[in-house]
Amino acid sequence: MSTSSKRNSLKTIGEFGLIRQLTHQWPASSPEIVKGIGDDAAILKARKGQQLLISTDVCIEGVHFDLAYQTPKDVGWRAGVANLSDIAAMGGTPLYLLVSMGVPVRVPPQNVRALYRGLKDACGPCNVALIGGDTSSSPSQIFLSLTIVGSVRANRALTRNRAEVGDRLYVTGTVGDSNAGLRLLQTHSNHLRRFRPSAVERFLIRRHVRPTPRVHVGQLLVDRKLAHAAIDLSDGLSSDLGHVCEDSQVGAEIQGKALPLSSQLRAFARRNNLNPVELALQGGEDYELLFTAPVQHHQKVLHVSRQTKVPISCIGEIKPKIFGQQLELPEGRKQKLANTSFHHFSHR
Ligand code: ADP
Ligand code: MG
Question: N or C: which terminus of the chain carries fewer CB neighbours within 10 A?
Answer without folding.
Answer: C
